[in-house]
Design brief:
The chain is of the alpha/beta class. The protein is built from 14 helices and 12 strands. Helix 2 (about 50-60) runs antiparallel to helix 11.
Length: about 375
């Protein structure tokens, strides 16, 4: 009988043989490097208001132990900040979690169950899938952004929880939220929308895609990782349901068995939220840079995932093409991400460019010039989807 040690060793050996070359050689970015690998879409990670707030909090810390999450007072900074985020998004209640993963897994744990099925977009973030599994719910996937397929699933499985992303991190595609909301209401389903990649970037003041589309009050729960456009380490759940925040922190396992946020993280996020509200020019710049990059790449003959979001995904015909393009861009000081299954769906490979507001016109020109040089080296364009 093969032991667990042997099985794990064999899996590692196979991985190193087939995927070990997927990671580019370590090359610390130089001063002229263009980074398109992180989700700091509004370029806030080094904003003085954010860093100064965190430093001031660290200097003021008395070193005392942090209370457990279920013991926080109503005026505790973490509770107050959760309520601030909720108001920002047009919701009545908000609760902060240690991460976006904890927010999604915890929410699905308490919202679903063996008697409440969960309908998941096939590209929905893995934390939503893991939360449904943890709840012991019957899970049914539906084809990406295919509301007709979702309808047929619900007609068979009955009312349950629908879980989607507002903007999908894998390829930047945008959820058809207006139609999804109508479908959820028709079948009396609970709707969970992960706004990790739309909070801060969408809406007049960065309220997120749900609010930007005028759908607040019609989406039951909105979640987010506050490590994207908001440069922190936390997760968020926003809703209109009275009493949910207290119920969540007392019953959801990721809340019960996790520590509270650190004071300097809370201070940094509070400062970042103020900047997101105030500095709308960052969203305008992000949209302008994204539009120029998308138009330029399409004009060069690259096949892009259809979207207008800040995540620009180039579909390649093979893993070899994706790896070549990523590594060749690194050689030109441009850092992107190559995505393969299971991060990308089966049979699909992508090179993902995460656009941000700090890109200059010169940066965009460098990216397009590099992609123009590299286009002939691609074996073939990706097949039509």
């Amino acid at each position: 009988m093969t032991s667990a040690h042997q099985r794990l060793g064999e899996r590692i050996r196979v991985f190193r043989g087939t995927r070990g070359g997927r990671r580019p050689a370590p090359a610390p970015p130089g001063g002229g490097a263009i980074m398109l690998t992180c989700s700091d879409y509004l370029a806030l990670a080094e904003h003085p208001a954010v860093t100064e707030a965190m430093i001031a909090s660290l200097r003021a810390a008395d070193g005392g132990a942090q209370p457990a999450g279920l013991c926080l007072s109503d005026d505790h900074p973490q509770i107050v900040l959760g309520e601030d985020f909720a108001r920002h998004m047009g919701a009545r209640a908000g609760v902060l979690c240690p991460s976006g993963w904890a927010a999604n897994t915890g929410l699905l744990q308490v919202a679903a169950g063996p008697d409440v099925p969960v309908y998941l977009d096939v590209l929905a973030h893995m934390s939503l899938w893991e939360g449904a599994r943890g709840a012991g719910a019957e899970m049914a996937y539906f084809r990406h952004n295919d509301l007709g397929h979702l309808r047929r699933r619900i007609e068979v499985g009955g009312s349950g929880v629908i879980a989607v992303d507002a903007v999908y991190s894998t390829d930047g595609s945008v959820c058809p939220l207006p139609g999804l909301v109508e479908l959820a209401e028709e079948f009396d389903c609970m709707l969970v929308v992960d706004e990790s990649h739309s909070l801060g970037t969408h809406g007049e003041h960065g309220e997120g895609l749900v609010a930007a589309l005028g759908l607040t009050g019609r989406v039951d729960f909105r979640t987010a990782s506050l490590a994207k456009a908001l440069p922190g380490r936390a997760g968020l759940i926003a809703c209109d349901r009275p009493g949910f925040a207290d119920y969540f922190v007392h019953t959801a396992l990721p809340a019960v068995f996790s520590s509270t946020l650190l004071p300097h993280d809370v201070a940094g996020l509070a400062a970042a939220l103020r900047v997101v509200r105030k500095e709308g020019w960052r969203r305008e710049r992000l949209r302008a840079v994204t539009r120029r990059l998308r138009d330029g790449l399409a004009g060069l003959g690259y096949r892009l995932v259809e979207s207008d979001s800040q995540i620009v995904a180039l579909e390649t015909g093979s893993e070899a093409d994706a790896t070549m393009l990523r590594d060749a861009l690194v050689g030109r000081g441009i850092f992107s991400a190559a995505l393969f299954p299971p991060t990308a769906s089966v049979g699909r490979t992508l090179v993902r460019l995460s656009v941000h507001a700090a890109l200059t016109d010169g940066d965009v020109g460098r990216i397009l010039a590099a992609c123009e040089d590299l286009r002939p080296r691609l074996a073939s364009p990706a097949p039509a989807g």
